[in-house]
Fold this sequence. Notes:
Oligomer: heterodimer
Shape of chain B: globular
Number of helices of chain A: 17
Largest sheet of chain A: none
Order of helices and strands of chain A: HHHHHHHHHHHHHHHHH
Shape of chain A: globular
Number of helices of chain B: 9
Amino acid sequence: xxxxxxxxxxxxxxxxxxxxxxxxxxxxxxxxxxxxxxxxxxxxxxxxxxxxxxxxxxxxxxxxxxxxxxxxxxxxxxxxxxxxxxxxxxxxxxxxxxxxxxxxxxxxxxxxxxxxxxxxxxxxxxxxxxxxxxxxxxxxxxxxxxxxxxxxxxxxxxxxxxxxxxxxxxxxxxxxxxxxxxxxxxxxxxxxxxxxxxxxxxxxxxxxxxxxxxxxxxxxxxxxxxxxxxxxxxxxxxxxxxxxxxxxxxxxxxxxxxxxxxxxxxxxxxxxxxxxxxxxxxxxxxxxxxxxxxxxxxxxxxxxxxxxxxxxxxxxxxxxxxxxxxxxxxxxxxxxxxxxxxxxxxxxxxxxxxxxxxxxxxxxxxxxxxxxxxxxxxxxxxxxxxxxxxxxxxxxxxxxxxxxxxxxxxxxxxxxxxxxxxxxxxxxxxxxxxxxxxxxxxxxxx
Amino acid sequence: xxxxxxxxxxxxxxxxxxxxxxxxxxxxxxxxxxxxxxxxxxxxxxxxxxxxxxxxxxxxxxxxxxxxxxxxxxxxxxxxxxxxxxxxxxxxxxxxxxxxxxxxxxxxxxxxxxxxxxxxxxxxxxxxxxxxxxxxxxxxxxxxxxxxxxxxxxxxxxxxxxxxxxxxxxxxxxxxxxxxxxxxxxxxxxxxxxxxxxxxxxxxxxxxxxxxxxxxxxxxxxxxxxxxxxxxxxxxxxxxxxxxxxxxxxxxxxxxxxxxxxxxxxxxxxxxxxxxxxxxxxxxxxxxxxxxxxxxxxxxxxxxxxxxxxxxxxx
Lengths: 446, 315
C-alpha cells in the first residue's frame, strides 16, 4: 500500500480475482452451516430468556462471586477483537508485506468479536432494559463509560478498515461476476461507491486507510487497557495491579493471533486458497504468535511471581489458590498449554506448518478463554473480609447450564457474523495482492 | 429506690428530648428539599390565621390560604429528589463497640424486616473475626461503612449509587442497571444483589407502594441493594433499625457535626471524640483510604465469652 508508484498488474489481477471470487456466494453448504448455527443460537437465546425472566439467580453468580463467566467471556471477546489492530495497525505501519492476504480476515474477526462484545456485557446486566441509562445518566468517572466509548469507537474504526479496502474489490467483482443474485449485486453496487479505479481515487483510499491504521492503534490500546481497569481500579487482591493494562493488552495479542491462525486455516482449506494463504504466511504468523506469547509470558512473570515472592496476606491466599489450590489445574493449563509450550514448540519451522500451527493455536485459544476465567473468578472468591452465614453454594462459584448456554450463544453469534462476511465478500484483498506483484517485479528490474 | 427511679426517668426524658430534636431537624431538611410537606412549618403569625407560609420546591417562601392546605403524599420522584439531597447539616456516624457484641443477631433480623430482605441477604452481617492465630476471636457487626471516599460510588456508571451531603451512601434501584461494578469495587463486601424476585414480591403486587429510596423498598429484582443507615428513620428522628434493635448496647449512632452519638440500647448520649479517644476507636482497613463513617471500639474487656474460631471459607 505504498501508493507512490501504484499500478495494478492486469494478468495477476485477473487470476487472483478468479480464485478469490470463486467461493463467494451463499452456497448450499453455507445454508446448512447457517441453519445449524441458527438452531443452536435459538436454544441459547431461550436460555437467555429464562435468565431475563427469572433473574440472574439462574446463573452461578451470587453476592460473593458477583462477576463470573460473562465478564470473563467479555474480556475474551475484546481480546480477540484486538487482532485487527495488531495486523492492520502495527504490522501494516511497519510495512510488512506478508500480512496482505490475511489482513482482511483479521478485520473480519475484529468486527465480529467487537460487535458481540457489547452484547456479552448486556447479558451480564441485571436490568438490561435500562441500558439507555448509561447514556442518559452516564458519569465520566466510571470505567464502564470509558469502555462503552472505546469499544464503540473501535468497532467503527475496524468496520471502516474492513469496508474501505473492500471498495475496489467490489468494483472488480461487479465487473466480472454475473451469476450473483440480484440483491447481492445491489449490495456490491452500493458499497463500491461507483469506483472507477482512477488513480485519484486510489490516492484518497490510501490516505484514508493510512489515517485509520494510525487511529486504530491508540483506540485498541484504550479498549483493552480500559477493560483491564474494570478490575484494576478495585482494591481486591489479584486485580489490584499496576501492570494490568499491558498485561491484558499483550494477552489480547496472543488470543487474537490464535483466532486468526484458526480462521485463516479454515478459509485456506474450505476455499482452496492455498496459493495465497501459503506455508510462508503460516510461518510468519507462527513467528508473530511466538513473539506475542513471549511478551505475554513476561507480563505473567511480573503479575504472578512478584506477589508470590512477597506473599502479602490477601495476595498469598490468591496465589496459593492458583498455584496449588482449587484453580491449580486450570491455571497451569493456561500457563503451559497456552503459553510456555507454544513458545518452545514454535522454535521449530516444522511446528509453524499450517496444520501444526493450527493445532497449537487451538490450544492457545482455549487456554486464553480459561485464562480470562482465572483472572476474574478466583479474585472474587476471596474478598478481604471472611465470608460467613451464607449457604455453601453461595460462596463457591459454579457456572450453570443456562449461563454456559448464553456464553456459547455469544460465540455462535460471532461465528455467524464472521461466516456471513466470509461468504458475502471476498476474503483476500484482490487489488492489494495484485499491487504487491507489480512492485516486486519493479524491484527485480532495478 | 428513689435515685434509681430518678435515673430511669432522666434517661427517659433524655431519650424523648433527643428524639424530638432529631425529628425537628429531619422535618426541616425534608421541607427544604421538596417543599411538599407543609406540616413542618408553623403558622406565620396569629393575626392572619387563614394564611400559612410554605416553601415551594424551588425554595421560595409563599403564603397559602389555610383552607387550601392539603397534605401531599410523596411519590417516588419526590422521595428520590429528597433522598438524593440528604438531611441538611448532618454528618451521620456510627460507632460499634466490639466488646459488647455477643452475636445476638437482633440487628440483622430488624434490618432484614425493615428492608424486606430474603433471609440470606444481609445489609448488616455479624462476622466472627480473628485477627491473628493467637488472638481470641470476636464478633464484628458489619454494616456499610458509608465511606467518604467510596470506591462503589466512583465506579457506578449511572449515578445510581451516590454520596449524600449527610454522609450516607444510597442506592437508587429505579436507576441501577445491575452491572454490579459497585459490588466488585467494595472492599468490605457489604453490597448485595437481588438475584431473584424480592422477598415480598407478592406483597408488592397486591399492595403497590411508592419507592422509598431512603429505605430502598420495595426491593427490585436485578438491582443492587445495600445498608442505608435506615435513612428513612433518620428523617423521622429515629435511630437506624439495627442500632435500636441491639439488646446489648453495641451501637452508637449520631452526628459528627454535633460530636455526639447515642447508644441504641441505653439511649445514653456521649461525646463522640471522647468515646473514640478513650476507647481507641479505629476504622476498618484504614490503609485503603476509603475513609469510612463507621468506627469500631476494640474488643477489650469483653462482656461475653469469646466465640468459636471462625470458618472463613478460605479453603
